[in-house]
């Protein structure tokens, strides 16, 4: 089957992160077994989702991993001009949810499995298909654990997020949480007798803003990023019920995205400590029932690969590129590096500018360029 034929099938599976991906995994596993590949399914705790390891070639020597995720973001509320879960060729573009992010890459990998099997590889090629990447890079973690349990020690990993086949050697790490400020309600005419959760949340929001301004002004720099410094912001706030009621609850979601010179987790931890130890203590002093609760949302490490490393040199040769870049969006590459001790490069067809939007698309020529890259990798692994 061609990459486009497989992509048509992959897009038809509605694998929005809140839903099961098992039907897609069944389909992919069938393709892998038909190509003579070894498969290893890794179920999540609910049994409704699974990651999949596919191995072609010898197991007792190190090889390379091709990493992709099966889940996509929702299309609800977006103004699509065609069914997002039906691959549609229009004006030379292939439209559908996940075409760029990142079922296009997965489709090319799957389409080339018969060529991998026929190549008599001396170094194996593994395909790692994860779930729940879009909600915090969750599903790749048990896949990496299974990799280690099986004694696999790959030479490197290619994560096929959409980069236009540019060689990406770094991305920012992210840490995010939801804080809920629990106050005491009363009539607004008696405001001093209440504990205003919205006002305490506002002080926390200002704290994050000031820290972000300091990072932008005085923090570490990396000119390879489009935003060359660490960022922090509050993005979702819910609180209050009526103008004449002192609010007793307000939730705030915030994040830090850090370049290698900073630690997103440490920055988020410092902000949380200000909320719980300073603001929460003030709230409890006014009413012991008040305070702040914390719900972690997302935490993944950044990627920072030496541009002179062997994997980067190999990737540039296979891609026919002389340059490298870094991106602000997160990927599973940092987890392969941090948890699996596997160097990783991000390279794949499509564009992140098209991802998560209505009328997401990939171009056939981009899939062909990805196939050329993988064919050169197959030749190099013989």
Automatic annotation (TrEMBL):
Its EC number is 3.5.1.16. It is an enzyme of class 3 (hydrolase). Keywords: Amino-acid biosynthesis, Arginine biosynthesis, Cobalt, Cytoplasm, Hydrolase, Metal-binding, Zinc. Pfam families: M20_dimer, Peptidase_M20. Residues 169-275 form the Peptidase M20 dimerisation domain. GO terms for molecular function: acetylornithine deacetylase activity; metal ion binding. PROSITE patterns: ARGE_DAPE_CPG2_2 (PS00759). Its cofactor is Zn(2+). InterPro entries: AcOrn-deacetyl (IPR010169), ArgE/DapE_CS (IPR001261), Bact_exopeptidase_dim_dom (IPR036264), Peptidase_M20 (IPR002933), Peptidase_M20_dimer (IPR011650), Peptidase_M20A (IPR050072). GO terms for biological process: L-arginine biosynthetic process. Belongs to the peptidase M20A family. ArgE subfamily. NCBIfam families: AcOrn-deacetyl, PRK07522.1. This is Acetylornithine deacetylase. It comes from Methylobacterium symbioticum.
